[in-house]
Amino acid sequence: MAERLSMTKRLRTPDHISATGANELALRIADYWRARGHLVHVQVVRVIDEQSTEGCVYAVRSSLVGGLPQREEHGQRGLV
Description:
Layout: H1 19-35, E1 42-48, E2 57-62
Antiparallel strand pairs: 1-2
């Protein structure tokens, strides 16, 4: 019989708020859409600075609207 995992163990969540984690997420987003023929602009921004009791927190901004790429100029493929 297989060992049953405890239901009280916390799930490990990915780090998307550190500078490293946000940069990795930004690359994943850009790569995902690039593989599908879309140009998506991504940028990592600091939203809470080191003076905060929480420390630095980073976020990813992108050109996605509603989670989808938009029509790009200069012949780039996009959704309307």
